Amino acid sequence: MTFKEAIQQGIPSLLPEKKPYDTSINHAPKRKDILTKEEKELALRNALRYFEPKHHATLLPEFREELEKYGRIYMYRFRPDYKIYARPVDEYPGKSQQAKAIMLMIQNNLDYAVAQHPHELITYGGNGAVFQNWAQYLLTMKYLSEMTDEQTLAVYSGHPMGLFPSHKDAPRVVVTNGMMIPNYSKPDDWEKFNALGVTQYGQMTAGSYMYIGPQGIVHGTTITVLNGFRKIKKETKGGLFLTSGLGGMSGAQPKAGNIAGCVTVCAEVNKKATETRHSQGWVDEVISDLNALSKRVKEATANKETVSIAYDGNIVEVWEKFAEDNIHIDLGSDQTSLHNPWAGGYYPVGLTYEEANEMMANNPEQFKKEVQKSLRRQVEAINKHTAKGTYFFDYGNAFLLEASRAGADVLSEDKNKEFRYPSYVQDIMGPMCFDYGFGPFRWVCASGKPEDLQKTDEIASEVLEELMKKSPVEIRQQMQDNITWIKGAQENKLVVGSQARILYADADGRVQIASAFNKAISEGKISTIILGRDHHDVSGTDSPYRETSNIYDGSRFTADMAIQNVIGDSFRGATWVSIHNGGGVGWGEVINGGFGMVLDGSDDAQRRLENMLFWDVNNGIARRSWARNEEAVFAIKRAMENNPSLKVTLPNFVDDKLFT
């Protein structure tokens, strides 16, 4: 059977052979045993409904074993035999070029080189899933291969509900993930309803088919580190950045540190994750001994090296060792998946990786106690360093939130601040980027050709350099950082999986770059381009402890912006849209939305990109402006000057003296 035939087959009528459990790749940890006997039966009935009744007797014991052994029904038997990766778009079967592009992006998210737990259909973050099981994948790909440009596929938390008649300007796919009734959005609710097979955690770009490997977070981390050093008025050369996590998106940190030019130490407890990043060249050195690590870091900082070092062990030990050896840390953070602290997102000090996984599955209450004890100990060590001048920031992974819930000493004495340390959005990304409209604009070359990517890099660089000539002084640093980034992108070898790129741009920059791409496609210089962005952006995400943490008018706990964003994108020309509960800070803590847009060089594509990209950014700037963020007020006034059709309600500022 050819690849195209396999896609078009969908769920096979004849059962494929049962596949052995492959121990050579990273697997998701066993999930909590949370279902009652009756609920387990319901979960099995839910899984079997994908298959003809004649197969139920064979599949029932198999699915029951998966549920008991792993806490979920993944349907491993139905994992495809073909290799999953982002093929050139023309290699996919189908009637719609847009649908083929979506298939490309789905496969990119599940590429072994990209996905954290590919056999469990999890892209990153420990639980960021594209689908809940392999039947959903097979059925979705079949629907996409049959779709016309007059249909829309509705996907409910990984389940393809079906193709519905629509029209050519409608999204080809509308994705929802984890959209729970609010009273059913606690962490254990995810465990229960995900085990039942009725919802999933799509993270941000995992369940919306827009992950481009760690490159996206490399860029964001590079910008954060550069601006972090600027805040403490120190050059990056010879500076020390200490953090943790090498799996999934956090694995981008050492690469970002190298691009920024500092010494980066990143601790990781999972040896496979460390080996993967080292083999990919994303981390330079691996050290397993604390004394050797201490000696190497002293040498690297003294010589002002640009080097990234992975510590094969727990981050808590590193914070404590560096305090004991009087090693000064300039920037400190943490990027373990603390949005998911009880199911593999954070591994407590004092337990091996294997011991922690065993306790997590078989003694979850004790595991929770160990995690919270570890967080208290980690914060105690961090506080020793910050007392000596270390700049520590929460990197949007719910570190401070979970540490506070554990009783760690992170609360602020300042009544205007919740935590003693800022979120990186509060200090850096919010006022320096998001409020001005700068956020993570990305694209994928559907041809799969590196030469197409190089041409798009050149086009984007030319557009940004031209725009910078007339940019106001307020945004020139961000413009320059992104010009430097895109010019070094080829040399830094950032591609993992699809031929993709990311940079930060405002609405004007995004529209101008996309227009230049569309023109180049129409002239035959490059092939089809797929536009997207991280949900971690100006408009797409309402997250009170990350993306909207610098919103101070009380509205950071509302989700109007994200909902308005995805609805607005859908009727302004997006090829697909997504809206999720949960993201980098956790289930029930954030609502986030994203999009994908296919550029084919047509006038229709030009009309859509101009309409949609302008809204996609300025929706968020308007909301940030209404929250009285002065940078956003500046940005939205500029947008209104450039487009007379935009009329935004501006805030009136109140004199503080009236309240004294």
Helix content: 40-55%
Rounded average pLDDT: 95
Shape: globular
- Fourth CATH level, the homologous superfamily of the largest domain: Urocanase superfamily
CATH class of the largest domain: Alpha Beta
Radius of gyration: 24 Å
Task: Work out the count of structural domains.
Answer: 3
| Number of helices, counting only DSSP H or I runs of 4 residues or more | 21
Proportion of β residues? Answer: 5-15%
Function: Catalyzes the conversion of urocanate to 4-imidazolone-5-propionate.
Pfam families: Urocanase, Urocanase_C, Urocanase_N
InterPro entries: Urocanase (IPR055351), Urocanase-like (IPR023637), Urocanase_C (IPR035401), Urocanase_central_sf (IPR038364), Urocanase_CS (IPR023636), Urocanase_N (IPR035400), Urocanase_Rossmann-like (IPR035085), Urocanase_sf (IPR036190)
Domain Urocanase Rossmann-like: 213-428
